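pinging the channel bc i need a second pair of eyes. not urgent but kinda urgent?? the chain im working w is below, pasted from the shared doc
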Amino acid sequence: MTDQSITRRNIGVLTAAQALGGASAPIVMSLGGLVGQQLAKNSAWITLPVSLFGLGLAIGTLPAAFIMRRHGRRNGYVVGVGFGVASGLIAALGIMLASFWIFCAGTFLAGFYGAYVQSYRFAAADTAEDALKAKAISWVMVGGLAGAIIGPQLVIFTRDAVAGTPYVGSFLSQALLPLIALPILLMLRTPSQTQAEAVADSGRTVLQLLAMPRYLLAVAAGVVSYGVMAFVMTAAPVAMVNHGHSVDNAALGIQWHLLAMFGPSFFTGRLMVRYGKERVTAVGMVLLAASGVVALGGLGLSHFWGSLALLGIGWNLSFIGATAMVTDCHTPAERGKAQGMNDFFVFAATAAVSFLAGSILHSSGWQAVNWMIFPALALILVPLLWQGRYGCN
């Protein structure tokens, strides 16, 4: 089997796995705040389950990178499946026992599973030639389009499946998804590990990578794009329900948001090849700002859904662009640490802002949430445009 046929095979495998693994996150994000509102004694904690999902992502990235570096991506993904199954079962148990903290433990473990799912995009680039890396990443992210449908639809069809305990069925279905993904992941074929990759301290150190302007900008762009998206999306379902919209409409709003997040992946790779990664990332940042403008325009269903759709498209362009920028900044020997640290920073920031979203929504309202995204976006746009025009090392 040639290198390119392996690449095509892996893209297909990882796209299917992304569709199933990517469906887990929207279940947590659609219901985490609502279950938190139902179980938490302190209203400022209502988005803590979603925040802990982000914290699990952040904490899980480094050990996931270590396991995959030592034992290979495929074996690491089997470990991730275990976290995925346990997370859904524990979250369902927390709801059944009306225990906020057990439920939070489940969403936290879902983040560990998510750490492995998030690495699928990097795994797609492992066997791709340089010119195809951006397209490989983009195509695997297309799998999230199916996940964007599967997750919210599972919420709608299973949230009342267990009589007397709303949402238990949704988290039981979340536990089933990784098991379905397991035989697909076992079909993955990754390149043999080199001696350099097996040595933890090979290549540049993390500090040396962070001293590299291009890598630092790529990480910062990923942090801002994912952080802004998570900040707004975490608060959106609760804000919609609080302003008179139904739970189903809130779940559908997240579905449209997720479709917008992954739908553009069909052409994002081609856009980056034609216009450059930095320029595409910058356009994504502008669209994230546009989502805030729409949200500030009113509290109707069209405002919420329109804002969430723009938020998704902006995230797609900016986050996939930032991911492709990271792959340009490291050697194969540095792959684990460069990608692991990138995801650590991205998801640590996501955990922090998603918790902050609940507090701000409770204390200052939905409009305050949206006003706060503009300074962060402005801060990253200037160096992105500068690098897109002049470049830096």
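so Residues 281 and 369 are 23 Å apart (CA to CA). and Confidence is low (pLDDT under 50) at residues 194-198. — does that match what u expected or am i reading it wrong
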